[in-house]
Design a protein that fits this description.
The complex is a heterodimer of chains A (266) and B (316). By secondary structure, chain A is an alpha/beta fold. Chain A is built from nine helices and ten strands. Chain A has a domain at 42-52 and 91-261: 3-Layer(aba) Sandwich (Rossmann fold), CATH 3.40.50. Helix content of chain A is 34%, strand content 24%. In chain A, 41% of the residues are buried. By secondary structure, chain B is mainly alpha-helical. Chain B is built from 13 helices and no strands. The chains are: A alpha/beta (266), B mainly alpha (316). The A-B interface holds A 61, 63, 91-96, 100-101, 103, 107-113, 115-116, 119-121, 123, 125, 127-130, 132-136, 139-140, 144, 160-162, 176, 180 and B 160, 163-164, 166-169, 171-172, 174-175, 177-179, 181-190, 193, 196-197, 200, 242, 303-304, 306-307, 310-311, 313-314.
């Protein structure tokens, strides 16, 4: 296992959320005054159902439009921080900035094989121009090794075929995200529907990524995953972050226990 | 050259079949891969033909052949492409119903403009003066050579489409058609992709329109009806929208069968030709479409098989 806490210090990208409000049909779902994500390598985001976790993530990705407020990405070395306002950008620009999110519900390309999915994820725009009808071979040459590593690591049954089970589709979704080489990775319930041994492998891959300088934020209902992987935990309820701290502190907090965990789960 | 063996109807019919195959192949990229239902094929086709015709016949060219002809061809192609860019920009983010109505409406606008802008297009009387850029003797010989040129152009379109299936661009188009939000989350500029696809497809359709205009010599508003769009769509859907060969097979089975076999070789009463046959054609096409969609919803050749393609292109 990789020791994330003692990994060499790197400047991690941060996401700053300011005055961000989102409501659906008049009901305020997220209302955050100020929140900075990315202080620690891996941050957990927990809270009861309907707390606004998924909506918050979609607001960061700008796949849900903010009613008001601003989401900013800060990256680069300490002395020369670059700020990009994510909430001004179209969704497809996020991946290019290194901000990537996995999907909570199963999302897949039904007509593309597993290999196709990985190559799609790996292909830079220069390979995908309409006139580049001979660029499959160079793309494959440049990236096949990388794709194969992931295929072997997660042992996909038949990579030239289509993703079959729900678990395989979920896993493929995460692998697509990892292949984008994210600098800031948001994971929305990455282990839901995955068998235990794959959950362990996904966590291993995420720890490795974090140790290499990527900031990871993970929403997860399986709290054992949260307690074991997070360096810091945010507790969200009624659209706002009401607590943040090390996993142990959050775990022992009375509010959290009453609101979310219930006695006996601690 | 003695071309007595060649039936003028057969040559003309085959020309139409190959031309519609070209349209269906371009439509295959839009509808079969990126799932954009372009019902305005004839609009782009007509813009290509008329833009070519206007420049070629109305301008007092001071340079010698073949330059005016080639420049006009290029002009027709580019103008159709620009029209595609404009229409694409309007429809790219609409739902499928919106795309359908938008493209259909666009084709109608083109048909109306062609009729009303008499100064440029000749209106209902038509626009003549479109001639071959060469003269190698008899009419039939010229037509055969022109058919050869069309065949090369459609062959090139086929090769392009075939390569697109085997390139990252094709994969991107399939991804956009399959799950656009997911493609976007992987950093793919889906709107731009659809826009350019529309522009390129329209330019190709415009070129085919100009080539067809030269073959028929006279452009008239009746020639740019919905039947051109239908021929391409029915052929493609019948053969299989998601397959490269679907366009070829489907168009041969529909347009080829009807325009060549039925019209030229079946002993039909003479009086049918002006009124009954065009209607009969639409009826047969419609019926064929319904039967195929009931029996084989993905067309005769079936759905795309990326797994087979991947295995054959990336054999380990």
């Amino acid at each position: 296992m990789i020791d994330v806490a003692n990994a060499p210090t790197v400047t991690r990208p941060q996401i700053r959320i300011e005055g961000a409000v989102k409501s659906f049909a008049g009901r305020v779902v997220v209302d955050i005054d100020e929140l900075v994500l990315g202080d620690s390598p891996i941050e957990g985001l927990i809270g009861p159902n309907g707390a606004g976790k998924t909506t918050l993530m979609r607001m960061i990705m700008h796949s849900a439009k903010l009613d008001r407020g601003k989401v900013t990405l800060r990256r680069g070395p300490e002395e020369d921080v670059e700020e990009v306002v994510l909430s001004d950008l179209p969704t497809h620009r996020m991946a290019g900035l290194g901000v990537v999110k996995s999907n909570q519900v199963i999302m897949d390309f039904e007509k593309l094989t597993i290999w196709d999915s990985l190559l799609l994820s790996l292909a830079a725009a220069k390979y995908e121009h309409p006139h580049r009808i001979f660029s499959e071979a160079p793309l494959f040459e440049a990236h096949a090794e990388e794709a194969r590593e992931y295929l072997d690591f997660f042992s996909f049954a038949d990579p030239t075929g289509f993703a079959q089970s729900a678990g395989e589709k979920k896993l493929l979704d995460i692998v697509r995200c990892l292949l984008l080489k994210p600098r800031f990775l948001l994971l929305d319930e990455p282990t839901a529907g995955l068998p235990d041994e794959l959950t362990e492998k996904v966590m291993e891959a995420i720890r490795r990524l974090a140790s290499e300088g990527t900031s990871v934020v993970i929403v997860e209902h399986d709290l054992n995953v949260i307690w074991s992987i997070s360096d810091e935990v945010h507790f969200m309820a009624e659209g706002n972050i009401i607590l943040r701290g090390p996993p142990q502190t959050i775990r022992e907090n009375r509010t959290v226990v009453e609101k979310y965990l219930g006695e006996g789960h601690v | 050259m003695n071309l007595d063996w060649l039936d003028a109807f057969l040559l003309f019919g085959t020309f139409q079949v190959v031309m519609v195959i070209g349209l269906a192949l371009l439509l295959h990229l839009q509808l079969g891969l990126a799932r954009i239902a372009n019902f305005g094929v004839v609009g782009f086709w007509a813009i290509g033909a008329y833009a070519f015709g206007v420049l070629f016949t109305k301008v007092d060219w001071s340079i010698g052949e073949p330059w005016p002809f080639l420049i006009s061809m290029l002009f027709g192609t580019v103008v159709a492409g620009l029209a595609g860019l404009l229409v694409g920009w309007l429809i790219a983010d609409l739902e499928i119903e919106g795309v359908l109505v938008g493209t259909l409406g666009f084709a109608t606008v083109v048909a109306i403009l062609v009729t009303t802008e008499r100064g440029l297009t000749g209106g209902a009387l038509g626009m003549g003066g479109l001639s071959f850029p060469f003269d190698i003797g008899k009419t039939k010989a010229n037509e055969l050579l022109w058919f050869g040129i069309l065949f090369v152009v459609v062959g090139a379109i086929f090769y392009y489409v075939w390569r697109v299936h085997r390139s990252p661009y094709g994969r991107l188009l399939i991804a956009v058609g399959d799950n656009e939000p997911l493609a976007r989350s992987l950093g793919k500029p889906t709107f731009q992709t659809k826009l350019w696809l529309f522009a390129i497809g329209s330019a190709g359709m415009g070129l085919l329109g100009a080539i067809n205009g030269v073959m028929v010599h006279l452009l008239i508003p009746e020639g740019i009806g919905i039947n051109v769009t239908l021929a391409a769509i029915v052929g493609l859907v019948l053969g299989g929208t998601a397959r490269v060969w679907g366009a070829v097979l489907g168009v041969i089975l529909t347009v080829g069968f009807f325009d060549i076999v039925v019209q030229s070789y079946l002993p039909l009463p003479r009086s049918w030709y002006t009124q009954a046959i065009p209607v009969l054609r639409e009826m047969v096409f419609g019926a064929a479409l319904i039967i195929v969609l009931l029996v084989r919803p993905f067309g005769i050749l079936g759905d795309m098989r990326r797994d087979k393609l991947i295995r054959s292109t990336h054999r380990d």
